[in-house]
Amino acid sequence: MDQIKFKVNGAEYAVGCDVSSDVTLLDYLRDRIGLHGTKYMCREGGCGGCVVSARSPSDAPLAINSCMKSVTSCHGWEITTIEGLGNRHKGYHPLQKTLAEKNGSQCGYCSPSWVMAMNSLLQANSDITMLEVEKSLGSQTCRCTGYRPILDAFKSFAKDAPRQILLEDIEDLQICKKNGGACEKSDCQESEWCFVDEDEGKEDIIEFKLKDDRLWVRALKVKDIFNILEREGDDSYMLVCGNTAKGVYPIEEYARVLIDISGVKELKGYTLDQNLIVKSGTTLTEFLEILKTVAKEQYFGYLQKIYEHVQKVAHIPLRNVASIAGNLMIKHQNNWFSSDIFLLLEMIGAQVTIQNRLRAKETLTMQQFLKANMRGAVIWNVMLPPLSDDCRIFTYKVMPRSENAHAFVNAGFMYKLKSGNTVTNARIVYGALSPSFIRADATERYLKGKKLFTNKTLTAAIKILEAELVVEDNPPEPSVEYRKKVALGLFYKGLLSLSPETNLVARYKSGATNLADERPVSRAVQVFDTNHTVWPITQPIQKVEAVIQCEERKKENTFIPP
Amino acid sequence: MEDLIRCLKSRTKKDSKWRRKPYLSELPKPPVSARAAPQPPTSTQSQRPAGTREAAPQLTKVTPNDPTVLYPQGSRVLTMAFYTEDLPHLPDEVYCALALSTVALGDIVSIDASKALALPGVIAFYKAEDIPGINSFTPPDSFLYSANEEVLASGTVKYFNQPIGIVVAESRYLADKAAKLVEATYSNVKEPVIDVKKTVDDKDRTTQFENIEATETGSDVEKVVKGFNTVYGQYHYTMETLTTVVKPSDDGLAVYCSTQWMEGVQLMISRALKLQQNQVDVHTRRVGGGYGIKLSRSSQGAIAAALVVQKLNRPCRFIQSLTTNTKALGKRLPCCSDFEAGVSSTGVIQYVNYKVFEDNGYKTNEQFTLLGGGQFNNAYNRARWNYTSFDSITDTAKNTWARAPGTLEHVAMSEFIMEQIAYEMNLDPLDVRMANLDTQYSKDMKEMIDYVIIKSDYPKRRKAVNKFNTENRWKKRGLRFAFLRWTPIGGVNFYINLSVYRGDGSVVITHGAIEMGQGINTKAVQVAAYMLNIPIEKIIVKENNTVIAPNCSLSGGSIMNQNVIVGVQRACQQLLDRLKPVRDAMDNPTWEDLITKAYNDNVDLQAHGFTRTDEEYPFDIYGVTLAEVEVDILTGQSQILRIDLCEDVGQSVSPEVDIGQVEGAFMMGVGYWTCENLVYAPTGELLTDRSWNYHVPLARDIPQDWRVYFRKNSYSNDAVFGSKCIGEPPICMAVVVALAMREAITAARLDSGIPKTKWYPEDGPYTVERNYLLSSTNTADFKFN
Prior knowledge:
heterodimer; A: about 550 residues; Ubiquitin-like (UB roll); Uridine Diphospho-n-acetylenolpyruvylglucosamine Reductase, domain 3; Enolase-like, domain 1; 3 domains; five-stranded mixed β-sheet; five-stranded antiparallel β-sheet; 21 helices; 18 strands; about 30% helix; B: about 775 residues; alpha+beta; Aldehyde Oxidoreductase, domain 4; globular; iron (chain B); oxidoreductase (chain B)
């Protein structure tokens, strides 16, 4: 019987028919191998309590939400948990020590996940600024500390920290280059930790029945997917990549056939011909890298704006596993989903390539895709067009807080202008207003041929837009009144942002910006007395259990209370 | 600049030395002798010399390299950070989940669990009739309680998603899934009343709790200001949801429960299952966040799990899902207030007639309203306040303790009154507050207000904000103060045990209070180390359970800190008294030698401390906070630009721990006043039930510039080493963010032609939605030039 294999803190594990479809990596870590350092709360990728470091065969370690990932989709992964990072036997990791020392751990329940999120960040890029540190921890929730001491602890690892804790400190600890944890072995053999790569060349499809009678198939090629669907039927199946959709719409019951497509190399990466063709299995993190790279190419400078917006999608651990196709399929299945990816692609007039197993590949517009019958079909790629420099783009995501939230309303505006700022083409896209309202067609039509940055055009356009917006009630999302009004506000905001500054009255200029984007690195001061004559009373010491809260116990030391 | 850096560096150096060798070199080594009294300064002014730390935190500490020096509690690492759900799976373990009602009000006709039971792996289903004893998880014979609350609804359902049954299955997923398949039929189904505002004029839903009459009335009434304000609930959002593991034990049940009140769990399990109390042992090592939800609500799930164990004789694990926690359990109390104030031309209140309605949910039981009786006037002139409080009933889950219950609402309402007076009469809100200070508090408050004004550079920033608002149409700022006077009430029972091991003189303490992040164990260790004059490394606080700490009160309210300090002190004193004759016969012995000798002399090396419910250490806590915020008028989004928060914490026993309490509480309050918005359907169902739609603040929501000051030279009482309560007061000051938001919104409204003097109600948090709508922007104003 087939199994999938992965490593946790250097030790090899295999699973197959012994697990059910609902067993996540988190469940496996805690319940099967007794690593209780990884905590959890929401089980939907929202709270960050379950974050671990994971390394797929080709990449640097990444933070992932272990509550989202099916354990059977971890083939070839190397997982590092807090237990693998550092402990009292091998020495604490500087992140653990610093978090405890700076009192970044109160009840301690979230502490291991903060350490793992930060560890993954440093493993991927140790050349990081304090501001980048602050911007990269939106995946994590702490209800006790108010975040300040956690940020202080982790910012001390940034290159611009007043007293940077250098990475040498980490290397002193003999960090395993493979899993990013403290090295557990003195006789580490190259071959021992290279098993994944060795297997790579001679990989086969892995297929097994799960304990709850579902079929799990790890596909390697798109044709494998079609073959499986041919054989098993397409009445109840799911293509599994990051499995993050369940964070949006909880999955009560898994399909009968589960096809893991995360190993399908045909669906990874990008090519650049006339269009930028991004394969559909590309994760959002990989997508960001692609956007950054290709933005340097002629006619693709606009990708910088897309890049900035995609950084607002969920948070890093989720983006590390969520794929473009996965995101689009949530939108396909539930049109209410305020997909930022769909919004951005629609704004630039991107297209999507799909293939049904019985038919040839088809290229669809984003809106055609929403209506397409996707049963038995696979998304191959999305195609982002080149845009000339006279295309001006503004996008916005209104969130209930600074980061890590779905859009209350999101919007993308693309105006193609000719001399005199006259509009030759406009694409105005909104999300979260109603399941069907996507484009402001009437406003787009009106704007054609108009000078964009005049009060007259603006006033008239607002009227048309207000009339054509279709906003439906969708509790607990904000009211129809708000979403309609903020949609108008965003239209105006976009024009303020794109208008030549000389065209603007001074009082209006600051309307163009986004407060969260402008937020600087935070700073804090605490002032208190301490009276040496009565120490340790009044002595500023760290919490007595802070270290063990940032550590966790090893499985061999399992503590069984009386 | 270089000087500054040098100065900070030198301070850092010094600081690190303190941390490294507190017992060896920096301090004169005292003889090993009893410190009979805590040696508080006799004059709070003179004896607070060295050690004031004032620097950006990232500059003040270094990372020492030697871990044994760095971690004074190095030995503590030998234990493990254990939370209830970390108890390894037990053979034959089952899981349970609660089946919830799908109407808010109705009589239960029948409950059909056949679909749930038909799933392979589902083992059993229990309902109210299956509980052999009392169907209640709250003890009406306990302090602050007055009624029984049903574990499972029997007969009638009082709110949407009330637990009606327990599903038992072989896995957690299965239990959760099966619970949703339980179907019930109801008769007499009625529309629920969800909003506390709707209870105000309904005599059937309100009961007067308390009336405190004014003792004086002024006659200089220039204007009568009338207002009606409402605030709503808040979900606690503990990172560890309610969790219980129960297994059969030799004598009855061993219960591992994530609770802030072990005795409550033990007592109510014993009553529900008709066991003797001594047959139920409850263990709690620590909890992953409490904030009040684990005071009494934990007992409900614990009883459910215990019932399963009694029925099946198999261990049972009950981890409540986030959605069960949010939907089935009560939250922070919504509250509304109705007031009329006669005010002089300078804003001095001549009289206030003030009514407040606390939303208890479907039942009054826990005495929240009692806590408001000492708090309603905040720092303002109590004599002129006519106060009447009411308990309201709505058809929602019974609300429960949530960090500063009763007091948070009252502080907020009093601050709203000050603001409304200032707006309507076009006065400076700081002047209005100053003019209304109660003489009892004014000396302390003024000292702190002056301090914050200087530290925050207030006059200059006031002008800058005014200028900003004139010069910007679509971004607005607000700069506002909030004041706080907070007075704790009551005491709690704790049983403190302190044992010394004769082999090496190491010490263990159990104190009966629950460590939930607030640092109670740290303070206990500090106090014992001081009293016994031994290094803190010698002392460990061990797990709590109902065997070593019976009858302990709930670990709620900030007051528990004080009681543990007192109780540990008492236990230490008892031990020291026994050791004295031994020590006197020796020549300045080391601690270890002293203990060896005492052991050989048959001295009892286990000591005990007890704290009473009727011992109080009266003091007032003061606070002054200034907030500056910026609001994007085109979206409603906001940022907190700066917070200057000064709190009087007395002489902080553990400053780092207390700073953590202040910052954490404040941010929980920021969430309450900004992004945490509970939305109910007309059916009474809570729609914001998970992380996807209930939004707590994250790292980039904290103040961009955040300055916390502890009041200098403050000292409360020798018995508690001069300290004051810490956990709850700071959250009461977070209303300052709402007030600053209001100023920004008011500035935007002014640009839309609405005068500043027109007060507008804002019920609930200043969400992006509310900020936008209240700004009353007219799209006709959307222009380039």
